Amino acid sequence: MQKISSDDIITKFCSAFKEQSGFSVLENTNPLHISYNSNEYYIFFRNVSHGGAGYPEDATRVQLPEKEEFECVKGSDATFFLMGYDQENDVFVTWEPQKVKSRLNDKGYVSFFARKPVQKITDEGYIVFSTLSNGDFFCAVKTKDLPTFFNMVSFFPNDGKEKRMLLKPPTRPEDRVSFNEQVIYYGVPGSGKSKKVNDKLQAVDDYTRIVFHADFSNSDFLGQILPESTDDGDVKYRYKPSAFVKMLREAYINPTKKYALVIEELNRGNAPSIFGALFQLLDRKKKRTIGKHDNGNVYDAGWSDYSVSLENVNEYFRSVEGDKKPYDKVTLGEISFGEKEGIRFPKNLAIFATMNTSDQNVFTLDHAFQRRWKMELVSSELNPANTDEKNQMELIIEGTEITWDKFRKAINRRIVRASSFSSLEDKRLGGWFVQNDTTVLKDGNVRDAISVDLFANKVIKYLWDDAFKFDRSIFNDNEEKTLEDIINEYKKSKMDIFDSDFKSELTK
Prior knowledge:
- By secondary structure, the protein is α/β, with parallel strands linked by helices.
- The protein has helices spanning 6-15, 71-74, 97-102, 146-150, 193-201, 218-222, 243-253, 271-275, 311-317, 367-370, 387-393, 404-418, 452-467, 483-493, 500-506; strands at 23-27, 32-36, 39-47, 49-52, 55-64, 79-86, 91-95, 110-114, 126-131, 137-142, 163-166, 182-187, 206-211, 223-229, 235-241, 259-264, 329-332, 335-338, 349-356, 374-377, 396-397, 438-442, 445-450.
- The chain folds into 3 domains: 6-166, Trna Endonuclease, Chain: A, domain 1; 173-370, 3-Layer(aba) Sandwich (Rossmann fold); 387-506, no CATH class.
- Strands 1-2-3-6-7-10-9-11 form an 8-stranded mixed β-sheet. The chain has a 5-stranded parallel β-sheet with strand order 13-16-19-12-20, with helices on both faces. A 3-stranded antiparallel β-sheet has the order 4-5-8, with no helix packed on it.
- Helix 13 (452-467) runs antiparallel to helix 14.
- Helices cover 24% and strands 26% of the residues.
């Protein structure tokens, strides 16, 4: 393959920055003098060669000649890079700029070698920093990823370790999504809260659903340190991220996609305790913030207003896929993520939660927690203009001529009247409290229906145990009767288990 000229290499280099507003060429010579994001750089370009001088054929070599043009570099505080272009792999290789600049005064040619064929690793989406046997460090980067590299040159490694920075394609401003709703859907049992959430999920690329309960803890939410057997029979303890934390990292990496966390039964666990330090992250930025923040990153509208330090989560974020070792710094989407970086909820993560207002033995959500959410009451009523809801309203209760809609409205009126004795309004039955599980023949037509067993064991039990637990006078002759007695009577006599006032309600 015929090697391209230095001018062509410079053209190739500059093409990578054509969509970067902070890039300009100050002197179009070799070394090239550029400005990028208010920093100045001198870069001397050469073609790479392979092998030679007893080195393997896949070793990369770039020579730094003694040239008068370097006088401008010696007298400048600008960072100086020696960059070799590997035409076969479309990869630039560069050595640690401090050491390259220090050797400008050496007489004759100074060769820089990389004895590892790391250029090929860049095909897997990495910027690769490699340590050489003589203590030098060098980097291999695809042409298209040069802007990302120059955004992190201040973090060029100097600790003798090899690092691989996993990259994703840069996103354009118009590709970024803002999907940072935080909504609690609340209402009576069966009002359709989960359906509301499922409708929202139609617009997302990925989601994680969890259920809060009394034993659900912060470690369940974020992950925990667990024992792990090693190949030599020892036991080590490693952090195992939760499904939510795994998705959170993915949301960072893919800023053009929409993600959602779904929390069912929010108030059946101690929500503030489960969120722990992440409670702080529920405050989201309302508008774009001018200027840079943690480690030079910009967090605009939709990101968490604050960050929290979570060492295990941070370490997991910096680990490369398929490799448990955390690296000093990785690029996650638009964020340069280092070991001091705080955790935030990204702008493309929404959180949807549901809670029943009538649950017993639930945890109270304090005002400080609730004010960070949008609260949306889900109506218990059904809309006959909607086909699915109309069908639900017209369900027949097996063994009767009564529809589910007529029964539900009558029982809810009775519950509201009974609320003068105790606060029972939230014990009303939502339109979707129970659904069809059988069919019946009515007026010569097959109709969806609620079976006797389902109605007895779900609806009657709920009315006995919850809605009318303090005053069961709605049930005829209920003294000294048990729930078992009431259910058995329902299976025989259906609506006759209720008092005359309620039965008259059913005929209205």
